[in-house]
Amino acid sequence: MVDQFYERHKCSKLRLIQMVGLAESSYYRKVSGGKKGLKPSINTKHSRLGNVNESEVIKSIKAILNHPFIDCGYRLMTSYLVRKGYQINHKKVYRIMKQAGLLKLDDRIKRSGTGRKFVKYRKVLTNRPFQCIEMDIKYVWMVISV
Description:
This protein is mostly helical. It contains 6 helices and 3 strands.
């Protein structure tokens, strides 16, 4: 609109912008079209190795996940990586694990906040001793190398 009046009347653009009631910054603003913020860094700092590439971090994550008793998300993985000497935060670990397909988003436990009400109405009625024997069973997977 300002450009049309500028072509017709040959008045200064500043004066036309003021007449329309538009801020100068709004008129001259150019949309970048990209994502906001800095681009994610490719390197990660390690205490002994210096700067390492993301592929090395992915190898470390896969090595940790290959341990038979470790099945964790990105927050716990961050603490494992920090213990190994990486200077890395949870947001970067989340991004790296998501890009590598290591996040377990589909296998998450759905927590509805209802608590443990599934055993609420169960009562075992017995007539004689040893009619019903109950115990808690915990599964521990053992890796046996042959």
